[in-house]
Amino acid sequence: MCNLYSMTSNPQAIRDIAKVLEDRTGNLQPLPEIYPNTMAPIVRNGEGGRELLMARWGMPTPPGYLKGHKMDRGVTNIRNPTSTWWKRWEGVAHRCLVPLTAFSEPERLHDGKSQPVWFARSDGEPLAFFAGIWCRWTSVRKLADGETTDDLFGFLTTDANSEVGAIHPKAMPVILRQLDELDVWMNASVSEALRLQRPLSDGMLACVDPPRPLE
């Protein structure tokens, strides 16, 4: 599953493509490596329209999986949004767009180790969006911080297409590339929005070099 992605696009491009009316990120810097339980930008529906803000990657873990654990690192990838636990966040108020420029899946090597393989749009356009959900939740995300209340997000997964499946056959993130797809995900009924939970067509992704870390 995808537990590493990058967002190095121009913030203005995010605002323009996602029809953001309020930017609450401040001075958004390129993020070449985004890991679980760290902060990243999302676009959600606010009272005055779509807003861009920072949130922590990892939705609340179902309680049954937290027994014996002192903290909740969160669930990054969501395969079944209509299950009892996730269903509460499937409506328009809790959907979000997660901007990305590339994402990684682990390739298992012959020695048992793994290495990240990066994918991006094959058409040369830099920006795409994961179909995500978000919530505000109180939990212990890091022991040093104790209990905190955070805006959290995760994104949907689906069957892998041929490019991703060659590396990680089980699943790939749900990626939205077209403007009409963004509007459907953010505005449509649950049944219509969840029709977008499908793999990208073969050929729409290409393997790319790893994002360069900031100096």
TrEMBL record:
InterPro entries: SRAP, SRAP-like. Keywords: Covalent protein-DNA linkage, DNA damage, DNA-binding, Hydrolase, Lyase, Protease. One of its GO terms (biological process) is proteolysis. It comes from the Bacteria. PANTHER family: ABASIC SITE PROCESSING PROTEIN HMCES, DC12-RELATED. It is an enzyme of class 3 (hydrolase). Belongs to the SOS response-associated peptidase family. It comes from Komagataeibacter intermedius AF2. This is Abasic site processing protein. It holds the Pfam family SRAP. Its EC number is 3.4.-.-. GO terms for molecular function: lyase activity; peptidase activity; single-stranded DNA binding. The keyword DNA damage applies.
